[in-house]
């Protein structure tokens, strides 16, 4: 996440989704009749999404799994409804936090960007001002002290990619140009920067668990500007030819 109020695109968001490969999903589209204005990929198991955009506002939200005790199975709500809720309404007020498993929800408009985190016991809202912000399962810049799997790998990922993103010229993703031209030096970074998926530093990951494979299933790039959105998507992470422009207004 990059925030620069002086830019034509004040908000840039790069989202990487890691999931079991056999969990069904479909690429970004207008999949929710109750929210016809929203665009996002849809998780077919729970019908929600990991990232939702309202191009007309514009407004975007992205959710990551957090760490901590899970919600009681009775009455548990899917975290995939959270991006839809913010993208559709611009608010996450009156959330029943105890009904959700731990999460980190990035909420972005042209006027404000914030991170809402829930660890199963308490929630926290952090405003994200100008600059580069990296959110992983262990929180903003890996600051969540809650123990969990993959802590060392997430720190290695942060240590490797954060300075590279910071050093890269910030994209100005103009509408109606190819993805490579729109996102420039960010594109090879979100395409994995050549690291093996088994490397602890890898952004695009892959792990085998018996007969199941878990790893990166998609990558999304979103830019918000007054009057429009740039939204690019890859359902084949690491393949530079797989990028498609979803919205190029």
Keywords summarizing the entry:
249 residues, single chain, alpha+beta, 7-stranded antiparallel β-sheet
By helix and strand content, what is the structural category? alpha+beta
Estimate the helix proportion, in percent.
10-25%
Largest sheet geometry:
7 strands, antiparallel
Question: Which geometry do the CA atoms define?
Answer: globular
The radius of gyration computed from the alpha-carbon positions, rounded to a whole number of angstroms, is 17 Å
- Strand and helix order: EEEEEEHEEEEEEHHHEEEE
* DSSP strand content: 25-35%
- State the end-to-end distance: 20 Å
Low-confidence stretches are none
Q: Please tally the helical runs, counting DSSP H or I stretches of 4 or more residues.
A: 4
* Mean pLDDT across residues: 96
Number of distinct beta strands: 16
Q: How would you characterize the overall build of this protein?
A:
This protein is of the alpha+beta class and 249 residues long. It has four helices and 16 strands. Strand 14 and strand 15 form a beta hairpin. The longest helix is centred in the middle third of the chain and has 17 residues. The protein starts with a strand and ends with a strand.
